[in-house]
Amino acid sequence: MNTVTEKPSATRKHRTFVGRLIIATTAMIILAAALSYLNSHGQKLLDRARRADVNSNIVSTCVDYAWLSEDEVVFVASDDYRSESGGPGYKLAGYRLSSGAAIDCSRLSRLLNSHFGDPSRLLASADGKHVLWTDANGLHFNTATVAGDSFRQFDKVKPSVLAWAGDNRHVFEYVFQSDAKTPYARIHDIEDPGRPSKWLPPEHFVLESSSIFIDKENAVRSAIAPHFEDEGADHRSGMIFEAQIGHEHEALRSYSVNLPATSYVYEACISSQGEVVAWPMVTTPPRPSALQEWISRLIPQTGSYSERRFELWVCKTDGTHLRLLGTEPVLRQWIDPKDDVATDIKPHRFHWLPSGKALSFVYKGELYVIPTN
After folding, report:
1. Tens digits of per-residue pLDDT, 186-237?
2. CB 94 within 8 A of CB 62
3. CA-closest candidate to residue 60, choices 312, 334, 345, 372
4. Cα dist. 42→138, 207, 266, 306 in Å?
5. CATH 2.130.10.10 in the chain, residues?
6. 3-class secondary structure for the chain?
């Protein structure tokens, strides 16, 4: 029996070609959408970070926290009692992350509340043995050991920025005034509070530095988050400066860091080893193209191109090797929907661990640690 093989008609060939073209086009669209999503969103911050096993109630109510070592962290949190001054009270709680054991901070808590403490900022010395906090009026700052001993109080100029020197004995006070062209600085000796604080000659410091690092040789590095620039600018410039205390004639070294143009950088954080700067920011992508809008409607999983998101960037202190560590969407929590009042929920309270190789932050009432190397 002879079998007759029917040749495919031109119509069937055309249909087969069109079908394959549709499949190839769809695959290209999906690939383009995936690449666009990865390019615009980056790796999720929480995918790279690990959650620290500490009391979430302490973390969610913390005013600030400080790392005493790679394994030990102390929180200062609002408490439901009132201090001797009649103002709001605070308590300190410390943890060893490896074992979950608590660090006794009861004496330090009593000390903080009995001396009108307003710990909007808690700073630990490099060796993790001393902590520093400011008074409510901003005219004094206090130091003590973590055990609650060796309390010292010093006069402070308002406004100013404080930083521990690398020798763990001195506190550097960087003073800036809106009516002064040149900021100035002084050094306080915590082991000899009776000695007058040493005023330094005008240095090459920069107004409104948001983060300062000082090494054992009194080399100073400061970083400044960029101000808003023209909408047409293709980037925002963060600045990093280096100077040497006591060398007023030494040339100031400065470095510019080109950050995303649509970003709001709300702080700059120099690592505890003075080698890396972190730039937490919120970005709003520019208006998407028609193709991007079509892709986001076709494949909703790629997300909206116009959504605000949090981004964490890091670079070296000479401004090089800028890279994105991760992103998270910026969530909105409505305080009063009738008045259109809301707050952003995003990672905040960034602090470097003592090694300078990891960065911690608070997000949704939890403490996270992310490696940066």
Report:
1. 888 888 877 766 665 544 444 455 677 777 777 777 787 776 544 445 557 7
2. no
3. 345
4. 40, 33, 20, 15
5. 50-202
6. CCCCCCCCCHHHHHHHHHHHHHHHHHHHHHHHHHHHHHHHHCCEHHHHCEECCCCHHHHHCEEEEEECCCCEEEEEEEEEEECCCCCEEEEEEEEECCCCCEECCHHHHHHHHHCCECCCCCEECCCCCEEEEEECCCCEEEEEECCCCCCEEEECCCCEEEEECCCCCEEEEEECCCCCCCCEEEEEECCCCCCCCEECCCCCCCCCCCEEEECCCCEEEEEECCCCCCCCCCEEEEEEEEEECCCCCCCCEEEEEEEECCEEECCCEECCCCCEEEEEEEECCCCCCHHHHHHHHHCHHHCCCCCCEEEEEEEECCCCCCEEEEEEECEEEEEEHHHCEEEEECCEEEEECCCCCEEEEEECCEEEEEECC
Q: Which amino acid is residue 135, in one-letter code?
A: D
- HEC string of 7-28 equals CCCHHHHHHHHHHHHHHHHHHH
pLDDT at site 55: 83
Q: What is the pTM of this model?
A: 0.77
> What is the Cα 27 distance to its own chain's centre?
39
CA 44 vs CA 174, 175, 312, 325: distances in Å: 36, 38, 10, 8
- Report domain 50-202's class: mainly beta
Residues of the chain under the 50 pLDDT cut = 40, 81-86, 202-207, 229-232, 249, 301-306, 335
Angle at 38 between CA 34 and CA 40, to 5 degrees: 115
Please, which residues bridge with residue 90 across strands?
Answer: 78
- Under 8 Å CB-to-CB from 65, ≥6 apart: which residues? 73, 74, 75, 76, 122, 349, 351, 362, 367
> pLDDT tens digit string along 1-35?
555 555 556 666 666 766 777 777 777 766 655 55
313 closest CA partner among 298, 324, 303: 324
Q: How far is CA 105 from CA 76, 112, 115, 260, in A?
A: 10, 10, 16, 42
